[in-house]
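Q: What would this chain look like folded?
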Amino acid sequence: MIGNLAQAEVKKWSHFYQLAVDGGRGSGAAMEWYQRLAQTWQSHNLLLGVTPVTEESFQAFEDRFSVRIPSDVRRYFQCVNGTSILAGHDMDENGFRFLPLSEVQAVGDFAAEMGWKIDDEILGHQTAFVFVDYLAWCGAYAFETASPNEGAVYLLGYPRQRIVAPTLAKFAELYLKDDDSIYRA
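A: My prediction, written as structure tokens:
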């Protein structure tokens, strides 16, 4: 049954992957960072989480939290939207699981749920949102929606949190290279 479910998921999302990888422009165009994410995940048998996020979903998220999602974060959720919740197809070999927008949480809510202490400069404004699980919540990554660090990605879950990349696009680039800088607290 699990095998059939996995096969059905792969078939169901194959068109979504193709759109994520080629962006509807055909295979001759240079790949964007989010397309390289989708292609890498596909090559490692990871499935995309759900269908791309609609404008209505973005608006609901932004209204709920009184924030504006940065453009590269928006593009990521429009084109990729995380990895699947289907066991065995959700986490890469290094222990990263990218969440779909529907699972993204404010850092403050997440920290309270996990019992983590988060630095006031990150927690104080409720404008950062957890979007990546690292090693089944041994760590996490969050994107920032407010100035002065709008778009930055934070590493959380360690005694000292920090910015690991100034944008989601740069974080994706570092992630794809398995750069050590995204792991160190």
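The first strand starts at residue 96 and ends at 98.
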